[in-house]
Amino acid sequence: xxxxxxxxxxxxxxxxxxxxxxxxxxxxxxxxxxxxxxxxxxxxxxxxxxxxxxxxxxxxxxxxxxxxxxxxxxxxxxxxxxxxxxxxxxxxxxxxxxxxxxxxxxxxxxxxxxxxxxxxxxxxxxxxxxxxxxxxxxxxxxxxxxxxxxxxxxxxxxxxxxxxxxxxxxxxxxxxxxxxxxxxxxxxxxxxxxxxxxxxxxxxxxxxxxxxxxxxxxxxxxxxxxxxxxxxxx
Length: 234
Ligand code: APR
Known about the structure:
By secondary structure, the protein is of the alpha/beta class. The chain has helices at residues 27-30, 33-36, 39-44, 46-61, 69-80, 95-98, 158-165, 186-192, 219-232, and strands at residues 4-8, 85-89, 104-106, 109-116, 122-124, 144-148, 170-174, 196-201, 213-216.
């Protein structure tokens, strides 16, 4: 069981050039959530939804996007405290892994995974998903969707996440607005078991009042400082 559980959100990838959702010019300012982030939206217009994620996958796979100092500091924390640090991310990018993180749960899925609705298999892709793309596992065409958890769908690995929260001694939420459940409630699980809780965020999240400690600022500045302190205290 990890002693330290870290929840990350879009704010940890913002300085890598990936848009957040609810900041000014965020993704939800230019797209209707119901059109591009619900099963009903996909049912109504799979090509529109796939293209929304194709654009984000192309950016992620371009050389304009790379891990920032926050991703690198969290990977360092995992390296220095083997087996004691779990990263639960709401992000669908692979920047934690590209920074060297090893134990990462993508509770909202992954942009680089596709999910075949014909055979149920999930396979990796760095390419666009279009209507004639065939599933590498079963060969079916036109049945692929992004392996991303949409509103109204169940986040991945919730049993493991709750188990880890219920046994952690330190919980940190980094770069998340606390607007979306169940992630926004994770701090309450940690408080209930007596863990120390810290929020590292540019602005006060909706859940900030549950945290013992809040640190305001850019993730690329605050997270490396915080990691240094955690390691110094070990
Ligand atoms: N450093 C630290 N925090 C930042 C930075 C930064 N450079 N830039 C933005 N933030 C903070 C903002 O203040 C905001 O509170 O990151 C947070 C981003 O909030 P959201 O855009 O709501 O992203 P997130 O919390 O990850 O959204 C949760 O909502 O739409 C769904 O599935 C989607 O996973 C996403 C979920």
